Amino acid sequence: MNKLNFLKPNKENLNTYLYIGSFLFFIAVLDVFLGSFFQINITSFLPNFVGFILPLILGVVGLHLIRIEFSGIPKLDLLNKNINTNTFNAVLTLLIIFVVIKSIPPLMSWFIIDANIAGDTKEACTGSGACWTYIKIWLRRFIYGMYPNELQWRINISFFLLIALAFVGLIPSKKLKKFLTLYYVIIYPIIAFILIYYLISGGAFGLEWVETGAWGGLSLTFIVSFFCLIFCFPVGMFLALGRRSALPTVRYISVGFIEFWRGVPLITVLFMSSVMFPMFLPEDFFMDKLVRVIIAISLFEAAYVAEVIRGGLQALPRGQYDAAKSLGMGYWKMHIFVILPQALKLVIPGIANTFLALVKDTPLIFVVGLLEIVGMLNLAKTNPKWLGFAMEGYVFAAIIFWIICYAMSKYSYNLELKYKTER
Amino acid sequence: MNVKVKKIVPQLITLVVVILIFGFFTYNAQINMDNRGIEFGYGFLKQESSFDVQFSLIEYDGSHSYARAYLVGLLNTLLVAFLGIIISTIIGVVVGIARLSPNYLIERSAAFYVEFFRNIPLLLQIFFWYFAALRALPLPQDSEAMFGVFYLTIKGFFMPRFIWENLDVLFYSIIAVIISIILIRNYAKKLQENEGKQLPVFSISIGLFIVLPLLTFLFAGVSLSFELPVLHQLSTTSFVYKGGLGIPPELIALTLALALYTATFIAECVRAGIQGISKGQKEAAASIGLTPNQVLKLVIMPQALRIIIPPTTNQYLNLTKNSSLAAAIAYPDLVLVFAGTALMQTGRAIEIVSITMFTYLSISLSISLLMNWYNKKIAIKEK
Lengths: 423, 383
Description:
Chain A is an all-alpha fold. Chain A contains 17 helices and no strands.
């Protein structure tokens, strides 16, 4: 036991241990770094396996030697506390550091160093890395689908107007504040519908008609998510109220409806909308594919929204209901002026999460033949002139979706924090 | 009187509206089907399906009925869901615990994993694994063996197949082992409550689990041999592995994507569950002299599980429903085989879509009933 004691780092020989330990750790990291970035193997004189495992052993010994409790050096203490509490943690720390060092060069070379972006044919991609030329050439298709190039300004303008109109609520005016809910729930959706119908679809005011089959790409993702959000919210609200209703018939119908949609996968709902729903309509009645899809996704998401809102309704204390009733309010008055404003405020983060799931579900509309960005990627990938660039396409779409979804989830998290403190 | 009317009228209106909508749909469906000369009914299930399925757990070919095709699809769906649930639980629990690690680097890596995989649509991930990542694997003739017997190629993963003899005896012995382990556990619990003695239940169980099946090999004629995958040449440039157990790339891609995606949500459930236990519990347990392992096993986990299980069940349900995305990469699951191929052939949209939906609905409802029962069992019993 005594023999081992000199290996146990202590405060007396602090500097010695510190120097030896950090030297060993430095050598270990340097070995991996050189091997990964410059393909220099400084341990080539050793057998293969030993050379492979050596950095880990050196690193663990090094970290062991600098693991000195209460060393009096704040930075060392912080380091030990965070990444070097025991041998197991030290091994994991080293493994993570090595994996990061090992994975940087190949990623860098694929994304930037060996990648190509110049030119406009497949032949321009000579490097071994990514072929961003492919993305560059197909970018319009990925964003606008098959929408005619010269008409794409219509999509841009309508999106720009919609975003601008969404900020009306920020105008600080007390007179208008009363109408804000009305604006967002009824007027704004109508404006949005008119914009999309007349500007993107065309067919009136001398604008050329573009059928919905030509819509696609990222703009279609936005259109579908936007309309589904607008429609699923009121439906979900009524379902939530229905599920909490005192009237048995209303309650059972709501429960049945909600559980049905929550129990089936979205892909079967879309199948239903495309092959089964037309059977349920009168023969001469034609409904556009996009409209059917939007209705289907809205009903599907409404069931999830309903459950979120129900959570908010249940979280309100009973006193709120009793107080409203004692003021002589009826069912609708009570809900509109007392219950819903409070309940909805509680569930904003939950709604945001549902909406996030909705955005991530939109690529599924490929099953009915509508091609948003992932669908366009699959189409472009099979183009004989551009075979073999599946990876670039998926990475591109993944980056776009990641940015959108990450921003939304961070936003909903912030909302959650904000409303948590207010109550 | 007034109150009664107020209660009955809205119900009546709702009921009438719902019945009217259903009636309208049924009426139209009737007319549409009459026009197309289709008669509503499930008789077609007995007809010969005459299409093949790439991957099937049970014996199936074109001469079997549509009902059998349905069963093939259902089993494939359940297989993916089962594999996905197991793998995602393992990853999810590890990552969830890692997110609470005092080690800064481990915590950040786990957080990176969660944020990365959670915010990319599942369909995109499935496409990525199937069309981009797995396509980079070597062709069968170029693949090198892992551990001598496993081959990972562009056409799937090939491994030795187990060939059992007298498998039923082994099954019986395993059932006997499980029953005796339960009995021993109950006995050990009683012993501890009455006399304060602790039996090494875990080592006894492991011992039983090894010894009894081993005995069947020695005395009951159970034997195991392997059939290795062998490379066959079809033509000058085309090679395949025959024999052994082949796992198609669709299944690998789908399971991988589902597991990695769902694991992020399970990790968050696990993290929330462990964080939900107050620090006092841990300190109290430590102060009565329990070891760190015992603290985790006897105090933290039983309480954390109560918080973890309901949302995790939801994730299992989501995984099962998401497995229907298999249709996108042509893995023959319920949606592809039944709601895809069978529907195309028979044109019976209403029957087939309703059966498919009903199947998913019953899977969902039965898992959630099972989990509700379990949840009730482990819920805090207040005296």
